[in-house]
């Protein structure tokens, strides 16, 4: 049975002919490599569109707003997409603007957003609804001595830095600029400055820039003094230690920056060996929360695509096509859906995976995305 029943046919077809499966596509190393289309990617998406088979793009990438990213991908892969068709590493952070309740809402809190080119990520955060966003570049330009080695990049920071919403008050720093949460939206471009600013905040008194808590991080205090002082919560959007970029070998990703920061934290405070974990939230593939967010988006899109069809059949299978066993395969294999869908993983050879026995066993291995989609369409017949 070919699924070639197109969307119009679906509108009138009985719900029994609506596919009970969908796809989730990783981007880097599957659809694109160094922003260039991977052979077969455009045809695969065009086929699924034509056959009315839902899919979502699920990437640990980011650094620009979803609308901007899908516009680029639509153009490169000649497929019409909108912002609801993509989940980026930081997409779930939008839910923290209002939070689950008033007290946890970050909308009006002062948040530091690190990573990405210029202040693209600040602008993404503002488009999500964060109203008071500071970047490490702003803090550097307000006081370049905070990190002596970034002065070579001053011209770069000048192009986007903004005055701080509140000055750092050296006389009584507890009255000065206070950061309530720290986000790493995308790969930091200046690891040194970003790591220094984040460490300062983690060891500060309550997130006040320029202060040093007598308690936080002190392994000689009861409970190691950890978090005796409140401190800004640290959020990472992407665990990828490596990713597939233009260079033939995988490149360090945001997970590399986090590991470096964890190393500095451990050296500074004694770290986990002294019971002082770096408290943080890491989202992105393979985390359950990111897959839940993606599935919610996929189900909303599917309901929208098949609007008007009564008793839409449940989504039973989702085929995750990825190039990174650590994020795409592990994530799909371990995801437990609350909606009854079973996720199967298709590992492709066009990205991070170098061949051989992968660290996490996929449902199947395919040379590229097109072969992977063909396998899935055969399997779902
Ligand atoms: O920064 C992007 C990289 O971490 C991987 O992106 O699309 O392969 O999940 P993706
Ligand atoms: Mg990838």
Automatic annotation (TrEMBL):
One of its GO terms (cellular component) is mitochondrion. It comes from the Eukaryota. Gene3D superfamilies: HAD superfamily/HAD-like. Pfam families: Hydrolase_6, Hydrolase_like. GO terms for biological process: glycerophospholipid biosynthetic process. This is CDP-alcohol phosphatidyltransferase. It comes from Penicillium angulare.
């Amino acid at each position: 049975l070919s699924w070639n029943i197109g969307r119009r046919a679906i509108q009138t077809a009985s719900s029994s002919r609506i596919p009970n499966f969908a796809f989730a596509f990783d981007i880097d190393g599957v659809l694109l490599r160094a922003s260039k289309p991977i052979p077969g990617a455009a045809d695969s998406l065009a086929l699924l569109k034509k056959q009315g088979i839902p899919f979502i793009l699920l990437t640990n990438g980011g650094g620009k707003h979803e609308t901007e990213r899908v516009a680029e991908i639509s153009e490169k892969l000649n497929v019409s997409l909108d912002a609801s068709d993509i989940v980026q590493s930081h997409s779930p952070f939008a839910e923290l603007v209002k939070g689950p309740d008033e007290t946890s809402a970050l909308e009006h809190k002062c948040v530091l957003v690190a990573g990405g080119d210029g202040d693209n990520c600040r602008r993404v955060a503002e488009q999500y609804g964060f109203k008071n966003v500071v970047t490490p570049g702003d803090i550097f330009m307000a006081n370049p001595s905070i990190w002596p080695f970034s002065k070579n990049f001053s011209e770069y920071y000048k192009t986007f830095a903004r005055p701080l919403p509140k000055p750092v008050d050296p006389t009584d720093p507890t009255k000065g600029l206070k950061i309530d949460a720290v986000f790493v939206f995308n790969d930091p471009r200046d690891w040194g400055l970003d790591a220094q600013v984040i460490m300062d905040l983690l060891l500060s008194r309550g997130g006040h820039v320029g202060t040093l808590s007598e308690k936080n991080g002190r392994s000689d205090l009861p409970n190691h003094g950890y978090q005796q002082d409140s401190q800004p919560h640290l959020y990472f959007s992407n665990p990828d230690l490596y990713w597939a970029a233009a260079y033939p070998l995988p490149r360090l990703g945001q997970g590399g920056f986090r590991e470096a920061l964890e190393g500095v934290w451990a050296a500074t405070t004694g770290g986990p060996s002294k019971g002082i974990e770096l408290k943080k939230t890491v989202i992105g593939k393979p985390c359950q929360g990111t897959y839940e967010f993606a599935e919610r988006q996929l189900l909303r899109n599917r309901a929208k695509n098949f609007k008007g069809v009564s008793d839409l059949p449940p989504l039973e299978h989702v085929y995750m096509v990825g190039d990174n066993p650590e994020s795409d395969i592990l994530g799909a294999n371990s995801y437990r859906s609350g909606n009854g869908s079973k996720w199967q993983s298709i590992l492709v050879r066009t990205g991070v995976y170098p061949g051989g026995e992968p660290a996490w066993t996929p449902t199947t291995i395919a040379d590229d995305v097109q072969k992977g989609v063909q396998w899935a369409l055969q399997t779902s017949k």
